[in-house]
Write a structure and sequence with these properties.
The longest helix has 25 residues. A hairpin with a 3-residue loop joins strand 4 and strand 5. Strands 3-4-5-8-7 form a five-stranded mixed barrel. A two-stranded antiparallel sheet has the order 1-2. The chain is built from three helices and ten strands, in the order H-E-E-E-E-E-E-H-E-E-E-H-E. By secondary structure, it is of the alpha+beta class.
Length: about 150
């Protein structure tokens, strides 16, 4: 290889490294946002949330990536179907989600935030369970009672 080819390869590696570094900074779980506590009214019910952010990725039917928060595991939602993943994409991806984080166990063993996720007009966790797109999955300790989502 000549010097020009090596220089191009090194430049490409450098640019790829910068892109991944910037992406990691924006999506990092350590990139926390300010306190965003508030309330929403969904279907004549007022719900509280601790954080909010844009859903930038749907990993599967019960795991999303939220800007400023990181990976979020939808609490009490287990065994999601393929339809669940599509439902979450349709209702969350690119939208602001509001998270009621489990106060007794805010993260699972994998470092994901455990929360009930809401959009402006939808309780995502409840809709997944109520529409048989996922089963109830409960692990103690939890602020939420089994099946309360």
């Amino acid at each position: 290889m000549n010097k020009k080819t090596i220089s191009i390869i090194l430049l490409a590696i450098f640019l790829i490294t910068i892109v991944f570094t910037v992406a990691n900074t924006f999506l990092s779980e350590n990139n926390t946002s300010q306190n965003q506590t508030g309330t929403l009214t969904i279907e004549n019910r007022t719900v509280s949330y601790e954080k909010s952010g844009k859903c930038v990725e749907v990993i599967d039917g019960n795991t999303i990536q939220v800007y400023g928060v990181g990976k979020v595991q939808l609490t009490q939602v287990g065994s999601p179907t393929a339809e669940a993943t599509q439902f979450v994409k349709d209702n969350c991806l690119g939208k602001t989600v509001y998270l009621d984080i489990d106060d007794k166990k805010p993260q699972d063993d994998y470092g994901r935030t455990l929360a009930i996720a809401y959009t402006e007009d939808c309780d995502i966790n409840s809709e997944l369970i109520d529409n048989d797109l996922a089963k109830v999955s409960y692990f103690a300790p939890s602020e939420f009672k089994k099946g309360e989502v």
